[in-house]
Design brief:
The protein has helices at 14-21, 27-39, 44-50, 56-67, 89-95, 117-127, 138-151, 156-159, 171-186, 188-203, 239-249, 311-321, and strands spanning 97-103, 106-111, 130-135, 165-167, 208-213, 218-224, 227-232, 261-270, 273-284, 287-295. The protein is α+β, with helices and mostly antiparallel strands. The strands form two sheets. Strands 4-8-9-10-5-6-7 form a seven-stranded antiparallel beta sheet, covered by helices on one side. Strands 1-2-3 form a three-stranded mixed beta sheet, sandwiched between helices. The longest helix has 16 residues, at 171-186. The radius of gyration is 26 Å and the shape is globular.
C-alpha cells in the first residue's frame, strides 16, 4: 500500500514550511538554515539568501504570491518620504521591518517575511495602528535599514545606557551642576528614566512632553501631530524627584514650588546635533505640572521649494527677502512652525 509523503515539520517557520511544501527546499535544508539563522542571531530569509539556496527576488515573489501580499521594488521609493519616526530603531533592526507610509489608522510596512507575525504584532503594539505588510527583497531591505540608521545621528539604543551631555550655558549653572553631582548618584534611576523619556520623545517626533501629577496617579504624555498620547505612568513616589531633576537641568529654582517658573536646557546628542527644550512649571493641587517644548532645528530644514508656494508667490517672497531693508513677518498659531 502506497504511503503518503509526510508533511513538513511543524517547528519550521511559516515561510520555510511553505517553501518545503512547494518543493523549493528540502525539509533538511530548511531545518539546517533555520538552525543556522538562530545561531547567527539573524532571520530565516537572510540566512536563506546568504546560503544561496534561493535568490532574493525569487523568495520575495514566492512570498507575495503564496500569502497574497503586494510585491515592491524598494529601490523605486523616495527614502525622504519614509515615516522615519514611526518605528523605534531597535524594533526595525530586531524584526527587519520598516515603515513606508501611514494613511489614517493604517501603516504600510516593508518586510521580507510576511509570515513573521511576531514582527507585525510588535509594530502594531508600538504604533496602535492596523498593519498592511508589503513584501520586499531582503538585501534591499537590509540596505534601507542601514540607510535609516546612518541618517539617524543618535538613537535611543546608542544612548539608553549612557549619560546625556547636558550643555549649560553659564557659570552659575555649571556650579549648580557640580553641586548636584553627588546627589544624582542616589537618584540614578530617575536620571536615566528622564533621559529615556526625552530620547523617546525626540525619536517619536513629538513637540511637547507633559509631566502631570494627580491625586492617585502620575502620568507622562507626548504631543505628536497635535494630539496628546499617554506613554507612561511612573509611581507617585518619584514625582518630586522627577520635578526636581527637570528643574535643576533647566536652571529653575528647585526650592520654589508655589509659583510658575520658566527655564530652558540644551541636550547635546552628538557633535552636529543639539536639541533645545523650553520648560515651564505650574503648581497644582497635587504637585508641579511640567511641560517641555522640544525645539529641534533639524526638523525644520526645509527649502523654499518644499513650502508649496505658487511660482508667483515664491517670486514675491524671494524679492522681499533680498531687499536690503524691511522685514518679512511669518505668523501663525503656537506650534505651527
Amino acid at each position: 500500500m502506497a504511503t503518503l509523503p509526510s508533511p513538513p515539520s511543524t517547528h519550521l517557520s511559516g515561510l520555510a514550511r511553505s517553501l518545503v511544501q512547494r518543493g523549493l527546499l528540502t525539509e533538511k535544508d530548511a531545518e539546517d538554515i533555520q538552525t543556522q539563522a538562530r545561531g547567527a542571531a539573524t532571520h530565516f530569509v537572510s540566512q536563506l539568501v546568504l546560503g544561496k539556496k534561493l535568490g532574493a527576488l525569487e523568495i520575495a515573489e514566492f512570498a507575495a504570491q503564496t500569502f497574497g501580499y503586494p510585491l515592491l521594488d524598494i529601490d523605486a521609493i523616495d527614502t525622504g518620504s519614509l515615516s522615519m519616526n514611526t518605528l523605534d530603531i531597535k524594533l526595525m533592526q530586531r524584526h527587519r521591518v520598516i515603515a513606508l507610509y501611514q494613511r489614517g489608522n493604517r501603516l504600510t510596512v516593508a518586510t521580507s517575511d510576511p509570515t513573521n507575525l511576531q514582527a507585525l504584532d510588535a509594530v502594531k503594539f508600538q504604533t496602535s495602528l492596523a498593519i498592511d505588510p508589503i513584501v520586499v527583497e531582503d538585501p534591499k531591505l537590509d540596505k534601507l535599514i542601514h540607510h535609516v540608521l546612518e541618517s539617524n545621528d543618535t538613537s535611543l539604543g546608542d544612548l539608553g545606557d549612557e549619560d546625556i551631555d547636558l550643555e549649560f550655558t553659564d557659570d552659575e549653572a555649571l556650579a549648580e551642576k557640580n553641586a548636584e553631582a553627588s546627589t544624582e548618584i542616589d537618584d540614578a534611576p530617575v536620571v536615566k528614566y528622564i533621559q529615556k523619556i526625552l530620547l523617546d520623545a525626540i525619536n517619536a517626533g513629538s513637540s511637547d512632553i507633559h509631566f502631570e501629577p494627580y491625586e492617585k496617579l502620575y502620568r507622562i504624555r507626548y504631543r505628536t501631530d497635535g494630539i496628546l498620547y499617554e506613554i507612561a505612568t511612573p509611581p507617585l513616589a518619584i514625582k518630586e524627584k522627577i520635578a526636581s531633576r527637570i528643574k535643576v537641568i533647566s536652571k529653575m529654582d528647585i526650592a520654589e514650588k508655589r509659583v510658575p517658573q520658566d527655564g530652558r536646557m540644551k541636550l547635546v546628542l552628538s557633535k552636529n546635533r543639539a536639541i533645545d527644550f523650553r520648560v515651564s512649571s505650574l503648581p497644582t493641587l497635587f504637585g508641579e505640572k511640567i511641560v517641555m517644548r522640544i525645539l529641534d532645528p533639524s526638523s525644520a530644514t526645509l527649502g523654499i521649494d518644499a513650502l508649496g508656494y505658487d511660482p508667483d508667490q515664491k517670486e514675491y517672497l524671494l524679492h522681499a527677502i533680498h531687499r536690503p531693508y524691511g522685514m518679512v513677518l511669518v505668523t501663525g498659531p503656537t506650534g505651527s512652525g
